[in-house]
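Most newcomers find our protein records easier to grasp once they have seen one. Read left to right, the backbone structure tokens trace the chain's path through space. Once this layout is familiar, the rest of the handout is easier to follow. The record below serves as our worked example for the rest of this section:


***
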Amino acid sequence: MSAFVNVILAVQMLAALGMIGLILIQHGKGADMGAAFGSGSAGSLFGASGSANFLSRTTAVLAAVFFVTTLALAYLGNTRTASTGSVLESPAAAVPAPVTAPAADASAPVAPAPAASGAAQIPTK
């Protein structure tokens, strides 16, 4: 299962990098607008609308692949957990009390072990 997730993750990364590259090299819709107002020559004011060239179709395909791989990773990441219930519902693990060193004098009182509850750790005024 882990190898399958790694393959999907690699496909998602390649699709993301491909989309970034294709979007950066595409010519914007309003890029020829300045040429229509005297800074160069252009075929028309807004270019050919309605025709999708190779770059925009490839970007759309890569976006669809990215979307599908994202959904697949979300589904696989949600089903991989083996525990049932919440972490907050499980009982806390017992923390062992610290070991105190034995006193050198047998008649000297030994310091009591700290209380297990959190109330004993709150300082008083």
DSSP finds three helices and no strands in the chain. The CA atoms of residues 96 and 116 lie 9 Å apart. Confidence is low (pLDDT under 50) at residues 41-46.
